[in-house]
Amino acid sequence: MRSETVFKLAFNRALDMIGVAGVRSRIPSENALKLELQTSRTTVRKVLGELQKRGLLTHSSGGWHVSRRPRKSDYFPELETVATSAQVESKFMDWILRGDRRAGELINGLELARQFGVSTNAIREYLNRFSRFGLIERRPNSSWIIRGFTREFALELFEVREMFETRSALTFALQPDAAHSWKALRRLQSEHRALLRNISERYHDFSGLDERFHRLINGASGNRFIFDFHDVISLIFHYHYQWNKVDEKQRNRLAILEHLDYIEALLSRDPKRIEAACKRHLSSARKTLLASVRTPGKDTPMAEHEA
Amino acid sequence: MRSETVFKLAFNRALDMIGVAGVRSRIPSENALKLELQTSRTTVRKVLGELQKRGLLTHSSGGWHVSRRPRKSDYFPELETVATSAQVESKFMDWILRGDRRAGELINGLELARQFGVSTNAIREYLNRFSRFGLIERRPNSSWIIRGFTREFALELFEVREMFETRSALTFALQPDAAHSWKALRRLQSEHRALLRNISERYHDFSGLDERFHRLINGASGNRFIFDFHDVISLIFHYHYQWNKVDEKQRNRLAILEHLDYIEALLSRDPKRIEAACKRHLSSARKTLLASVRTPGKDTPMAEHEA
DNA sequence: TGATTGTCTATTGTGCATAAAAGACGAGCG
DNA sequence: CGCTCGTCTTTTATGCACAATAGACAATCA
In this structure, how many other beta carbons lie within 10 angstroms of the beta carbon of residue B93? Predict the structure, then answer.
């Protein structure tokens, strides 16, 4: 049976809202709340009910009103606000990227389910969706097999990344002046500059900026396959850098400089310059990722693809 | 509960084997059979048991022996030899490609389950795996949405296909003389020639050849993402051409000629020639696919990808 | 008439149960 | 010993149940 994660998340968001609005303020309509809390009206009503029960809201003729400030203790723990399926992701990424898994190793779904404290279904579904990331492979009627986060994986990932992003960047430059993305790019440019000024304290913030920057560029391709591939990059970077803190400040500083150069190239709309800046940045990013691949071990060879 | 599809498939294969071997011949060991029938020993034993029960085999001191010829009626119907999950695929492809589905339409999993006569789980799992093909998109806690087999889809598919295959083809040519793939390529070349000679009767055989040819080339990239992407192409072509018979003979003849040209370019190892032949063939393939996209309707716009 | 809410129905997410299939272990044989 | 096979255990595939959530419709109100 499903746990009330959607409800709890919406409830927490409602608490935030109430806190901002302050005591005695009026609560908008259910339909408005539905949009604000990004959920269905059914859940909104459940939230309102619970808020009333806990004395946060009162229902008078004029509608709902805030009757007291939310306390820290009113909030549901964050863990309870994420669906089981989503919890599996971080556990699994930890398991596969940090667990020193070797290429060729088999994945025991039942064992994982026990270890993660979820049902086998959850594991099954996750593995299915995860397979597109190229780190595991399915053997029908049998277990999954690990292909491994190896040097080969990183190289293959970047081979495609470079093809896709170069093309996207060139397409980006062809957009009309009026395109929304130019504004977004300029905004990113100043955010990069701001970050660079405070690099010593804020260097952790780079990863978020990095993600938004590359997503913006890849989005310009207008190609769903290119855009979807960015998820692979994102996921890998998100988890990998979360654990690899070596030289982080230095690395990020360099990356910001490369980004700024890249952004200027884009703004110049000069294809040659763009391609050069893009390639330079990506090859430096590849180097970083490669440096943190634990074992330069051999990948399992792909099955023979012959006619 | 799981149906006995694996067993039934193995059983049918065993019947084939027995038919070829003939009455009174000896049956190999369980381990040998396991490899031959591509299944586990558990299933092999179940098959042997059933064969004995039906009087096809007898167990004497010397091992198993064939005691009578298999009859047509001994075989399990083919439908019962494919797992439910696999049955979903063809039904779903039929539904989405031929059912005149419009971009933006919602997918009702329950309804599909009823229509296909499978459980909702089967649908769920299939949709999950199918999502990587870019024809549908997930809305969490809600239904899936159809992005549509549109003109845009075909164009995006081919944009990536061209990038990937051009690169693979160039890599192919760099392989050492001794590489296995050169032999495979030559074999494909003569198969193409043979098919061309009998094009009037055998033009249906082209699709299989086409698949093997492109898979060989993409395999040379040594890149799992490129190789996996070929599955998308394969699936689309497999189902799409299965239903689009207009001008089939003429189309296939042309494609064979292009392939032969392409193959010669590869054998010449001249990068310029290869790239040209590859591009020529792919753009003609794109034209064919585009011609058969029903409505040149608008795709649902991608969500704004901004920073 | 258009927004708001009460009520009811339909659909999705998730655990569980169970048979099918895979795989492990060891005894026996050549 | 290395192969074969009997037996037992583990794991995967798949349907079902049921609460959570979404969505539809109608009544009510401004």
Answer: 21
CA-CA distance, B292 to A87, in Å (whole number)?
A: 43
Identify the band that residue B27 occupies on the pLDDT scale cut at 50, 70 and 90: very high
- A151-291: CATH number: 1.20.120.530
pLDDT band at B294 (very low <50, low <70, confident <90, very high): low
Cα A103 to Cα A99: distance, rounded to the nearest angstrom: 12
Q: Which of B134, B185, B223 sits opposite A225 (nearest CB)?
A: B134
C-alpha B224/C-alpha B222 separation (Å) is 6
CB distance B189 to B306 below 8 Å: no
Domain positions in chain A: 5-79, 84-146, 151-291
Q: Over the stretch B81-90, which tens digit does the pLDDT of each residue have?
A: 999 999 999 8
Percent of chain B topping pLDDT 70: 95
Close Cβ partners of A178 (under 8 Å, ≥ 6 residues apart):
none
Of B54, B63, B68, nearest to B21 (Cα)?
Answer: B68
Q: Which CATH architecture has domain A84-146?
A: Orthogonal Bundle (1.10)
Q: Which of residues 105-144 of B touch strand D (CB under 7 A)?
A: 118-122, 139, 141-143
Residue among A31, A5, A37 at smallest CA distance from A18 = A37
CB atoms within 10 A of CB A300: 16
**CATH class in words for A5-79:** mainly alpha
Q: What's the pTM value of the predicted model, to 2 decimals?
A: 0.90
- ∠B58-B59-B61 over CA atoms, to 5°? 135
Which nucleotide lies nearest residue B119, CA to C1'? D15
Write down the residue that tokens 């003429």 correspond to. Answer: B250
Model confidence over B253-275: pLDDT tens digits? 999 999 999 999 999 999 999 99
